[in-house]
Design a protein that fits this description.
With 193 residues, the chain is α/β, with parallel strands linked by helices. The protein is built from four helices and twelve strands, in the order ββββαβαββαβαββββ. It is globular and about 40 Å long. The protein starts with a strand and ends with a strand.
């Protein structure tokens, strides 16, 4: 079974979006370099960010996201982002009306059901959990192995928190990945058990 990694780009004060769900400069690091991150050539990063991000993307088998993110992105047009094979959406609502049942998206009622489906689909590959409320719920439930952050030098002051509304203290190990890119610091922490 592969590991579970909670991930997002995040402001230095811990937000993945502002109060209006705008990400501002959080993803500018994906376009401020000269090394293409994928075949499309749309994302270009520094060599340091490429050397970290490309292998990470290649290990992801499934991404778990909340219904809010799914709705904000309009379901990524039915195509999972970054070449990922499947997306599991945590939701208490059915799939959108007219949604293509052949699209590689799976709708699960709650974090436990979402994780079970994601592990089934991912096999030995990594399950990525989008940070925010769903990620915080997964962390609180003890389902997350690592926390990955792309920390961007911006202060939002308020907004959508990286860990959502997670309550209680959760200890992480010292970072085992610390890589500086252009306008981003890539960090990874193992969750202390």
């Amino acid at each position: 079974m592969g590991k579970v990694v909670m991930y997002s780009s995040v402001s230095v004060d811990g937000f993945i979006a502002d109060r209006n769900d705008q990400v501002g400069p959080l993803f500018e690091w994906l376009s401020n370099g000269d090394v293409p991150l994928d075949e499309s050539g749309q994302a270009k990063v520094s060599q340091a960010s490429y050397d970290y991000t490309r292998p990470y993307w290649d290990e992801i088998g499934v991404t778990i996201a909340g219904r809010h993110v799914f709705d904000l992105t309009d379901g990524w047009g039915g195509q999972p982002p970054s070449g990922i094979a499947h997306v599991v959406v945590v939701t208490h609502r059915p799939s959108p009306e007219g949604w293509d049942p052949e699209a590689p998206f799976h709708f699960a009622d709650g974090v436990a059901a979402a994780m079970a489906k994601a592990r089934e689909l991912a096999g030995e590959r990594t399950v990525e959990v989008a940070a925010g409320d769903v990620g915080g719920q997964m962390l609180a439930a003890g389902l997350v192995d690592e926390v990955a952050m792309d920390v961007v030098p911006v202060v939002f002051g308020s907004g959508k928190r990286y860990f959502g509304s997670v309550g209680g203290q959760h200890l992480l190990e010292d970072p085992h990945v610390v890589i500086q890119g252009n306008r981003v610091l890539h960090l990874r922490y193992r969750v202390r058990r």
